[in-house]
Amino acid sequence: MSASRIPIPEKGTDWPALRERLVAKGARDVDWRRARTAVYVFHAGDDVLQVAKDAYALYSSENALGPMAFPSLQSMEAEVVGMGLSLLRAPEGAAGSMTSGGTESILLAVKACRDEAASRGADTNGAEIVIPRSAHPAFDKAAHYLGLRTVRVPVAADLRADVAAMAAALTPRTLMIVGSAPCFPYGLVDPIAALSELAQERGVWLHVDACVGGWFIPFARRNGVAVEDFDFSLPGVRSISADLHKYGYAAKGASTVFHRSEAQWRHQIFTFDDWPAGGMTTPTMAGTRPGGAIAAAWAVLNYLGVDGYREKARLVCETRAKLCDAIRAMPGMLVHGDPRLGLMSYGSTQHDVFAIWGRLVRRGWFSGLTTEPRGVHQMLSPAHAGVADEYLADLRDAIAEVSASGETAKDTKAQYA
Q1: How many CA atoms lie within 13 A of 68 on its CB side?
Q2: What is the pTM of this model?
Q3: Would you list the domain boundaries of the chain?
Q4: pLDDT tens-digit profile of 236-253?
Q5: Which of 194, 191, 217, 195 is nearest to 206 (CA)?
Q6: What confidence tens digit (pLDDT) does each residue in 60-119 have?
Q7: DSSP string, 258-297
Q8: Could you say which of 67, 212, 232, 347 would form a disulfide bridge with 375 (CB–CB 3.0 to 4.6 Å)?
Q9: Average pLDDT of span 146-150
Q10: Residues 6+ apart with CB under 8 A from 89
Q11: Closest Cα to residue 359, out of 323, 412, 308, 319?
């Protein structure tokens, strides 16, 4: 980012004064602690937040780059990865790593796919990744960094991946196809079983982007939520990304990437020894990796356990159902698709939904937008259960105001990041 030059203070400032300044800097930030935002932050309760903070602080100086120096971090990462492999029904011999976030997890899966193909003699320069229109931009970023190209395919009428259209888009240059569980824009799980069959038939790598759902769907399913298979139980699934700092409720940045086999995972690794300080091997993009993120993820997983995660999933799914039912009952309003987890997007057949969003922002509610179709995007946390009625009341008022004024917001541009 560009910034004006500012000299470092000649003398230091005491912590109480600095703390006041830090708090003051956040005065205009969204009020996520009162569940007023439905994007960027996943608030599972003050107790979970404190566990993550305390665990992070205990290991804030440790560095996972050095497992010989910090076997504690190596042990905790192995346990977190093992829990994820179990949760996602991976076969014996599967492997994985913790990463800094979903983008890194996706980039590493794409790298492993590319390098595995290269090891078989394939020409990977400019090779293709076929993805639904709804797939995360991290795949485009990965392709940009790794010398590949993405082919985005329009989604079906139900806003999920169109498997037939994706099959038609495959060429001899295709290395990978992608499905989301769920996709970010609409909160819908793509037909992963059908994509698994396609991957096997055509001999391509299937990556499942479960950054949102990997640490959520298994618990929602145990609560009776109907979600089709999306994980390693499907034989065509080669790799899965799943974020811990989303519905794993861990501190940022923490994600996981999983591979069907250790041999496959090894294509993710970077190794170099042609320099004076000796060999360097890293399983992820980063060299230094913050020990606090690993410790916080380990602590929260053990603090909540299966029962805790099931309860959080229940709160989220019930809140999403409450919002969807109420919005569908409002004249001129609709929900996009059939979301069953914690993400949803809603729009309108009568009003400018971006104008409605603007009215909600003025009332202190902050969330994202979707453009195809135009909608208000909600990524719900357990904390939203306590404010759902207040949100719906403000939404009704916002709709009434927009309807009365005829307000439009045609120039509003959706910007996730």
Answers
A1: 2
A2: 0.94
A3: 54-301, 306-405
A4: 999 999 999 999 999 999
A5: 195
A6: 998 889 888 999 999 999 999 999 999 999 999 999 999 999 999 999 999 999 999 999
A7: EESSHHHHGGG-EEE--STT--EEESSS-SS-BHHHHHHH
A8: 347
A9: 97
A10: 231, 232, 233
A11: 412
- The token duo for 154 is 């329009």
Q: Is 207 helix (H, G, I), strand (E, B) or coil?
A: strand
- Tell me whether the CATH fold assigned to 54-301 matches the one assigned to 306-405: no
Q: Do 349 and 334 contact (CB within 8 A), yes or no? A: yes
pLDDT at site 176: 98
Q: Does 415 have pLDDT greater than 70? A: no
Element containing residue 110 per DSSP (H, E):
helix 102-119
Q: Closest Cα to residue 178, out of 165, 159, 196, 164?
A: 196
Query: Residue 376, exposed/middle/buried by CB under 10 A (0-12, 13-18, 19+)?
Result: buried
The CATH code of the domain at 306-405 is: 3.90.1150.10
Helix-strand-coil percent breakdown of the chain, rounded to 5?
40, 15, 40
- In whole angstroms, what is the distance from residue 415 CA to residue 417 CA? 6
What's the chain's average pLDDT? 95
Cβ(112)–Cβ(268) below 8 Å: yes
Which residues are registered as beta bridge partners of 272?
280
CA pair distance 265, 96, nearest whole angstrom: 7
pLDDT tens by residue, 293-317: 999 999 999 999 999 999 999 999 9
